Amino acid sequence: MKVIKFGGSSLASSTQLQKVLSIVEADDQRKYVIVSAPGKRFDGDTKVTDLLIQYARQTIHHQDTTAVVQAIIERYAEIGHGFNVAEDQLTPIFETIRNLPNQTYADNTYLMATFKAHGERLNAQLVAAVFQQSGLNARYLDPKDAGMVVTDVPDDAQIIASSYDQLARWADTDQILVIPGFFAYNRNGQICTFSRGGSDITGAIVARGVHADLYENFTDVDAIYAVNPSLVEQPAAISEMTFREMRELSYAGFSVFHDEALIPAIQGDITVNVKNTNHPEAPGTLIKSTREPNPHYPVTGIASSSSFCSLYLRKYLLNKEVGLGRKILTILETHHISYEHMPSGIDDLTIIFDEHQLTPELEKTLVAEISAAIHPDEIYFTHDYSILMLVGESMRNRVGIMSRAATALADHNIKLIMVNQGASEISIMFGIHDRDADQAVVALYDEFFK
Amino acid sequence: MKVIKFGGSSLASSTQLQKVLSIVEADDQRKYVIVSAPGKRFDGDTKVTDLLIQYARQTIHHQDTTAVVQAIIERYAEIGHGFNVAEDQLTPIFETIRNLPNQTYADNTYLMATFKAHGERLNAQLVAAVFQQSGLNARYLDPKDAGMVVTDVPDDAQIIASSYDQLARWADTDQILVIPGFFAYNRNGQICTFSRGGSDITGAIVARGVHADLYENFTDVDAIYAVNPSLVEQPAAISEMTFREMRELSYAGFSVFHDEALIPAIQGDITVNVKNTNHPEAPGTLIKSTREPNPHYPVTGIASSSSFCSLYLRKYLLNKEVGLGRKILTILETHHISYEHMPSGIDDLTIIFDEHQLTPELEKTLVAEISAAIHPDEIYFTHDYSILMLVGESMRNRVGIMSRAATALADHNIKLIMVNQGASEISIMFGIHDRDADQAVVALYDEFFK
């Protein structure tokens, strides 16, 4: 049995849904179909999820929602009419959209979660109707009926482990089950969503729960590429990669497959196949627990992300002071801030953060509290900071990767602010200036893939 | 005014002491002479400090000390007789040696400290007598009279800051003051020593206290070399280096000048000149607060040390867990263990320790406690671990150093277990296997100095 997930662009129109239908029909192992909300049909189009966010905001602010409701309904109507779905099946969908403001919500975060979740929820109902209309033995399965229960965080829920046992009851299905991605219900029956792009997560949870043989994740690219295709023309496609490689590349910005979706896949040892709805015959990229080393291409992927900043501090005899690192980390913990890395010299320490966690105010507070606790000789934040990752299982136990990488970067006059190798055997991490990031990625790509 | 310190080999015999006398006579600014205990006269000889340690152990175990007492006395007698020092000046020295066991000691650690300290104490008295005999206006100055008070740790004392004010009273001296290195007294008047090789520390403390213009540190090499001379024939001498460079190189094993002696030198901004007693006309090495960058030689020194071990741990989603690093560091702090570095990957963390802090028992405890606290997927210690340091102020803001270093190491097939650059701007740190360490140092030397 296979779990198969379609992204928003695969479900953006009746034309796209026709391709989805053909893909599902082509393999009778494809029993669990996870659907996103309809995405963009063309450049400049608006995703249904974004329309729903607008609808929620206007509702909260008691503004006129006529236009946005109309726009949302039209998206579903276009798809339904394209497959001649009967009006009595479409009307309840339209009514649900219109009635969203009339439900009771604990607060606006729950309201927002429910509005957003309906992009997927109604699309799954519509897709089930289209499948039935096209002669498939299909039905809509709500996350509640599937047994998926999540933590009570309306916009960043986590699956509760007992859900897997509930999902296992759906393991031997004759029917095709169409399940909405992105959301489930907390223990009080309220809708909570995963983080954005969370349909991937639903797919991985279902795949683990029903012990699927494969989790096919259909999107709009032929494969995951070794490097961002906006930087390099026709970059090398990754035919297979390990979960660890995917995770390290996600860290620095690879976003084809949702980082959090890797967790259930790893836990259930479910191989993931990223494929293209528009080009289903392409083999795509397999993400799995292990793979054969590739002696010709030690590097699997290269990524960079500018969403980091660093806190530098210098204090004489820093490395002789027991408890100094702990004092700093306790301060961070007090403010609920996780750090990414903490390279240290003899008398120096740099702490690298995900920038999204910080505000100018919070940075000032941290500098003040750390200064009071450890009396550094120097302390300051730096924001012009990108992390560049070179990732590959085949780098393990190889000599010379650092030499090639550092030389390629030096040849392009790229200054290394930080180099971190050693914790992970399958990656090297460089800290560079934001302005150098794109050039650095291309330089490394040319070195390791050409 | 200059503070001038002589190491053990410079004071090992009357022949050596003659050189010391000439050096002191050659410059009337040399007013504060810090002396070590007599060192080795030839390969296979025993230092007086080691004889005193033997003497202390035999005393503690109530063994016969006749031979060792005789051996110690002969060392001082040879020097005294070489300069025709009157017997009535030598007799009290010999008597003090014989009477060491008859004093009262709080415990054996204080006994050991007092025995060891007398290597310097009696040598300073003897050197003062020799200087007087040779017509110099010199006198012995005991650390107690100098006002040096230290913390109550018999074998690893630290200077108490108020000592500097006391020392300042000796700032304008007409006489040459001969001061024993290595020890001072705690607040109860008990002898406590600095860590081994601590005469350098005494010299730096005195230099800071009297606001010396220069601290000349005489030893038995012409200069500090860019690399260990046992690995490379006639290596480049370092003509000048900064305190930070010295400190980073000391960290990985450069031992010509005692690491702890840098603290008072830095605090008092006292330039240190490492010189050779056997070749005093050589300019030696200047260690100072700043220096001009050298565009031709970005690297100042290369060192390696095998006294490290590492604890590796892997845990899925490690970087998302707030407080995980703090939990680990709290456990280390409970056991009074300081860590050196903590490079982290996405799901991996390595902690590097000074191996001397650990025992197999303690390692087991740490693994057990960390496992209980954070449930890692994998955790283990590695002992085959050397740290290789490439240090140079002129590396600051230079592109291409990592490239050259990594390529030189790769060309010699040396595997990099860890690379750490970024906290300090003036050094790059590599983790390599012990077996590769010597070859790695030579490879880097050839790259940056040939």
From TrEMBL, chains A, B:
It holds the Pfam family ACT_9. ATP binds at T219, D220, Y225. InterPro entries: AceGlu_kinase-like_sf, ACT-like_dom_sf, ACT_Aspartokinase, ACT_dom, AKIII_YclM_N, Asp/Glu/Uridylate_kinase, Asp_kin_monofn, Asp_kinase. One of its GO terms (cellular component) is cytosol. The keyword Kinase applies. Pathway: Amino-acid biosynthesis; L-lysine biosynthesis via DAP pathway; (S)-tetrahydrodipicolinate from L-aspartate: step 1/4; Amino-acid biosynthesis; L-threonine biosynthesis; L-threonine from L-aspartate: step 1/5; Amino-acid biosynthesis; L-methionine biosynthesis via de novo pathway; L-homoserine from L-aspartate: step 1/3. Signal peptide: none annotated. Belongs to the aspartokinase family. GO terms for molecular function: aspartate kinase activity; ATP binding. It catalyses: L-aspartate + ATP = 4-phospho-L-aspartate + ADP. Catalyzes the phosphorylation of the beta-carboxyl group of aspartic acid with ATP to yield 4-phospho-L-aspartate, which is involved in the branched biosynthetic pathway leading to the biosynthesis of amino acids threonine, isoleucine and methionine. It is an enzyme of class 2 (transferase). Its EC number is 2.7.2.4. Residues 390-450 form the ACT domain. GO terms for biological process: diaminopimelate biosynthetic process; homoserine biosynthetic process; lysine biosynthetic process via diaminopimelate; threonine biosynthetic process. This is Aspartokinase. Keywords: Amino-acid biosynthesis, ATP-binding, Diaminopimelate biosynthesis, Kinase, Lysine biosynthesis, Nucleotide-binding, Transferase.
